[in-house]
Specification:
The relative contact order is 0.19. The protein starts with a strand and ends with a strand. The strands form three sheets. Strands 4-5-14-9-10-11-13-12 form an eight-stranded antiparallel sheet. A three-stranded antiparallel sheet has the order 1-2-3, with no helix packed on it. The protein has a three-stranded antiparallel sheet with strand order 6-7-8, with no helix packed on it. The protein is 16% helix and 33% strand. It is an alpha+beta fold and 237 residues long. It has one domain.
Length: 237
């Protein structure tokens, strides 16, 4: 079982085959999903020294979700004592139910900004995909090679097949059938004022994170199907 991108408190589960189900978990999974905390398996994409990694979990017979930690101890353990951490899920929801309220774009952008931070930290490539109805293959929307340099400046290199015409993409270039946009964001810019003396969880400025992620947010939402989006990372082998 792999995950789609969470939104509005809903987590999509991508089953084997073509099925996607949507659930409200008993805890906020945006603090966990995509942050390098969960067990992964190899995804279908690979290139040279790079391998796609997708986070996976186990759907239990009682409808709960069992999360397994990427590491057995330490900060990334997700309170996993070895058997995994159980997360209760709501019943399966319909698309009409999960889209009954408009998308909270700010919260969604903050989450994408946190994914970008993690990718820059790990020197990873973010892959965003779209799962069409009755199609077992996820289709590429956006790739974001990411890095953090010695001056604590984050570099993101966005590439998509779509033509992007929004203001945040005005400096993009179109080449070989793709649209490319480079971003440079000093890490200091996304810290909350006075945060250097506070707990790590309170250091980030949500507005600055959402602003940093705006080109990514606009790109992945352009098809208009936030309930069918997925994310994975490419990491060096």
């Amino acid at each position: 079982m792999r995950f789609g991108l969470p939104f509005n408190g809903v987590v999509p589960l991508w089953h084997e085959g073509t099925t996607i189900t949507w659930h409200r978990p008993g805890t906020d999974l945006t603090d966990v999903l995509g942050m390098g905390l969960l067990r992964t398996q190899d995804g279908p994409a690979s290139s040279g020294r790079w391998q796609e990694k997708v986070e996976v979990a186990t759907l239990e017979n009682d409808g709960s979700l069992r999360l397994h930690a990427a590491t057995p101890t330490g900060r990334r353990a997700v309170k996993d004592a070895g058997a995994g951490a159980l997360v209760p899920l709501s019943r399966s929801l319909t698309v009409q139910e999960v889209m009954a309220t408009s998308l909270n774009e700010h919260a969604f952008a903050v989450y994408l900004g946190r994914l970008m931070l993690r990718a820059a930290r790990d020197g990873a490539i973010l892959l965003f995909t779209l799962r069409a109805p009755e199609d077992p293959e996820a289709h590429h929307l956006l790739s974001v090679p990411s890095e953090l340099d010695e001056n604590q400046v984050m570099h993101f290199h966005l590439g998509t097949l779509m033509e992007m015409r929004t203001r945040t993409w005005r400096k993009a270039v179109r080449r070989d059938g793709m649209t490319f946009l480079d971003l440079e964001v000093p890490y200091q810019r996304i810290l909350a004022p006075g945060s250097l003396s506070g707990p790590a969880d309170e250091m980030l400025d949500g507005i600055a994170l959402a602003s940093m992620a705006r080109p990514v947010t606009q790109c992945v939402l352009r098809p208009g199907f936030p309930f069918a989006l997925g994310m994975s990372v490419m990491l060096p082998r």
